[in-house]
Amino acid sequence: MKRFIAVLVTVFTCLLGANNAFAADDSNALQQIKESGTLRVGLSTFVPWAMRDKQGDLIGFEVDVAKRLAADAGLKVEFVPTSWDGIIPALLAGKFDVIIGGLTITPERNMSVLFTHPYSYSAVQMIASKTLASKMTTIADYNKRSVTIAVRSGAYPVQTARKLFPKAKLRQFDDETQAFQEVLNGNAQAALASTPTPEQMVIKNPDSLFMPFKKPLTRYATGFAIRQGDFNLLNFLNNWILVRTEDGWLNNRYQYWFKTTNWQNLVNENN
């Protein structure tokens, strides 16, 4: 009996210690941000989420969101541009505090990071070559071994392509510009990307590209991502999203960046 009681005491002591440590970790991230006075934001360049203007500065929807979030909290903002396929590992390694970069909320990613409530919604659409695919207007037309589809590596359209076009040859690139160029060069019948980029590419290249589907192939929600256990930081971010959703600010910025082209003359052509 004495041994049993001793074991119970040991177990409860360990559990108490673990809970205390977890509680400390819970408040640590937010406290560290407050003490540093700077919110470090990881992002990757996607037009119009984040891109360089003609002076080399970052602009875009996510940039506006991060700047407003930091300003509302009385913090400075530091952007940490990161390759898309390495952005979650960089977050987990402590390179920055939060990903604000159009990151799609998925169960698989949620196993590694904590997601906030959605702060925006987007969709995946296809562009196709008028030379190679002018008569291809159905899902079945593109779901063939003879078809090549270009996508950006690590982005949500990769999942869409694998789900809807499992028989097609998937060719992945480091950025969307390369994926679209593959279609323009005649090396792929089509490319997938998040709206509004496909629509804008068709407008820029009306003689070469078209959109075979009127409706988006998939729709998805995006959220901020932080490290597991940072629940105080999660609470703060969720409440900020709630406030800026209710007052219309997030929708206002979304409409500007995704539904107009008023900003295009500011953009560096190399984005």
UniProtKB/TrEMBL annotation:
Residues covered by the Solute-binding protein family 3/N-terminal domain: 38-261
Domain Ionotropic glutamate receptor C-terminal: 38-260
Keywords for this protein: Signal
Gene3D superfamilies cross-referenced by the UniProt entry: Periplasmic binding protein-like II
InterPro entries from the UniProt entry: Iontro_rcpt_C (IPR001320), SBP_3_CS (IPR018313), Solute-binding_3/MltF_N (IPR001638)
Keyword Transferase: no
Location, primary (coarse class): other
Residues in the signal sequence: 1-23
Subcellular location: Cell envelope
CDD domains: PBP2_Dsm1740
Record-linked SUPFAM superfamilies: Periplasmic binding protein-like II
Record family assignment: Belongs to the bacterial solute-binding protein 3 family.
Protein's UniProt name: Transporter substrate-binding domain-containing protein
